[in-house]
Design a protein that fits this description.
This protein is α/β, with parallel strands linked by helices. Helices cover 38% and strands 16% of the residues. The chain has helices at residues 9-17, 32-42, 53-60, 136-145, 155-159, 182-194, 211-224, 246-252, 262-272, 285-316, 320-327, 352-360, 367-376, 378-392, 421-430, 444-450, 460-465, 477-480, 484-488, 506-511, 525-530, and strands at 22-26, 45-49, 80-85, 92-96, 99-102, 107-112, 115-122, 149-152, 164-167, 200-203, 233-236, 255-259, 279-281, 401-405, 434-438, 454-456, 469-472, 496-499, 515-518. The strands form three sheets. An eight-stranded mixed beta sheet has the order 8-2-1-9-10-11-12-13, sandwiched between helices. Helix 2 packs across helix 4.
Length: 536
């Protein structure tokens, strides 16, 4: 052990890169595995622990159960990161030569003072995410083969005599929407029993304010017999990465940290300084714990507002995307985009880690639960759009083949946790539809576990050709490259497109002779009558 609590920043960075620092990562999921792999890439020795034997076995073989792309080009000198963010996905914009672009949406952007507009033109760098030769699986294989990284199901063995312990276990909610800290509590007991003097523990899981000091610290102290802040350090440093951009954002996205004392906070900050990203130290872990919840609740509520505005736009026959673009010429307006609902592990449950303890203390929030409910109702609204589109084609859901393009909760991810696409599929199946799906990033076995009756198609062209109605439910890079003309000219082409991710231009779809519906893309009858089809 190098005694990381007693080293300055430059010494910590040197020891990591010289291979003298051992880091235990407890929880090898969507945060823990990429982070562990990147620390191994920087030179640290990694011992990862996970309760799943299947996950540990895959990692030990160098197989990543997570799809992540390594966009190393963004770190090259010709790629200049900008302060502006994409108005569609909130990812940092870049400039390369004369081109400004979003690396996630892979579209060119225009910046005019405080205003940012995303164009329909593909960036010249549109291969940044799609089909990259260097992915998480490649980096993991190198780390395993080099001996820099190994995995085990034994947390106590993983933690013994390591310099740093990163806790990245899941913090779910139970059936009553109350925080469930069982996994975290068990991990802390196991860590505490093997904790040695001089170790730094960093909690990275999303938790309610007070968890670091009131739950984690007492368990670690009691199990280890060590003195908190003197014999071992403890800090909270939440992660903010976007799935699909994790390997880039782990290196570059600003971090916040707070420790049980300044010594712990400084040691945590020094460790993560191996990555070229700013780090801000705050006074108390309660601040960083609440900050992570604020950030995710902001996104959930913002999306809920966008979804309600989309439904209003539909009822009024106006296009919500055009209105949002107009509204955001005011630099005080920052609307996210409407869609088929909110999914993933974080946004669907993090609000309860704030509203539950608040309610226990006597203040019952009202806005946040309403926003959560509205987002949960969006799959039903999507099914209504599908029904409308098929009705215009003279068909009903129960007699139709409906293809869902994308099953994951977001683009460029294979994460099926709480994806709104599964309830969409279930609602359609309950009405007798034949459901076909295409998503090369998801685990087919996991799809079958979540819902029965979905026919998975391995070829995109086939999935499109057999559909009566084509539904865009995830904006993977591959799907964003689809062209309306290619769909419209297929043999046995779909009769309708329902776009929940704003991939296609509604006018272009209509002019190609296809029926169109989209979340918030209100259609005025007179405008449809004026839209002449493209010549055949």
């Amino acid at each position: 052990m190098v005694g990381i609590l007693n080293l300055n920043k430059s010494d910590v960075i040197r020891e990591v890169r010289n291979g003298n620092v051992t880091i235990s990562v407890v929880g090898l999921g969507y945060v823990g595995l990429p982070l562990a792999t990147l620390f191994a890439t920087e030179g640290a020795r990694i011992v990862g622990a996970d309760v799943s034997k299947d996950v540990v076995q895959k990692i030990s073989r160098g197989e990543s159960p997570i799809a992540e792309y390594d966009v190393m080009e963004l770190l090259q000198p010709n790629m200049v990161p900008l302060k502006a963010v994409c108005p569609r996905c909130a990812v940092q914009l870049f400039s390369s030569g004369s081109e400004v672009f979003c690396p996630h949406c892979q579209k060119v952007a225009e910046i005019d003072g405080p205003n940012v507009r995303l164009l329909s033109v593909n960036t010249k760098s549109d291969n940044l995410l799609a089909n990259r030769p260097t992915q998480l699986s490649d980096l993991l294989m190198k780390a395993i083969n080099s001996g820099k990284m190994r995995a085990t199901i034994d947390t106590r063995e993983a933690v013994f005599e390591t310099d740093v312990v990163l806790i990245t276990v899941g913090t779910p909610i139970d059936d009553n929407h109350e925080p469930n800290t069982e996994a975290l509590t068990k991990a802390c007991h196991d860590i505490g029993r093997s904790l040695t003097k001089g170790t730094l523990v960093i909690l990275k899981s999303t938790v309610s304010p007070g968890t670091t000091e009131d739950l984690v610290a007492p368990i670690l102290s009691a199990e280890s017999g060590l003195v908190l802040g003197e014999d071992f350090g403890l800090a909270h440093m939440p992660e903010r990465i976007k799935e699909g951009m994790a390997l880039y954002e782990f290196r570059t996205l600003a971090r916040i940290v707070a420790g049980v004392n300044q010594r712990s906070a400084l040691a945590a900050s020094s460790l993560f300084s191996v990555f070229p990203a700013p780090i801000y130290i705050f006074r108390s872990p309660r601040i960083t714990e609440a900050s992570k919840l604020f950030e995710n609740i902001y996104r959930d509520v913002n999306i809920s507002l966008a979804n309600e505005l989309a439904l209003i736009s539909q009822s009024l026959g106006i296009d919500v995307m055009e209105v949002i673009e107009a509204a955001q010429t005011d630099p005080k307006t920052h609307l996210l985009l409407p869609g088929p609902g909110v999914g993933g592990y974080c946004l669907t449950k993090d609000s309860f880690y704030l509203t539950y303890p608040s309610s226990q203390k006597g203040f019952i929030p009202t806005l946040i639960p309403v926003a959560r409910s509205l987002n949960d109702e969006m799959p039903l609204q999507v099914v209504k759009l599908i029904s409308e589109a098929l009705e215009e084609a003279g068909m009903r859901i129960g007699e139709s083949t409906i293809t869902l393009l994308g099953l994951a909760f977001k683009g460029n991810s294979g994460d099926l946790r709480n994806t709104p696409v599964i309830p969409i599929a279930q609602l359609l199946l309950s009405q007798g539809a034949r459901i076909v799906a295409y998503d090369p990033l998801v685990d087919p076995d996991e799809v079958k576990r979540l819902v029965n009756g979905i026919q998975l198609e391995s070829r995109l062209k086939n999935a499109i050709a057999i559909a009566d109605c084509l539904v865009i439910t995830a904006d993977h890079s591959e799907l964003r490259k689809l062209k309306v003309i290619d769909i419209a000219t297929l043999d046995g082409r779909p009769k309708a497109i329902v776009d929940t991710r704003h991939v296609f231009d509604p006018t272009e779809v209509r002019q190609s002779g296809l029926i169109y519906r989209g979340v918030g893309r209100g259609i005025i009858k007179a405008a449809l009558e004026r839209a002449a089809p493209l010549p055949s």
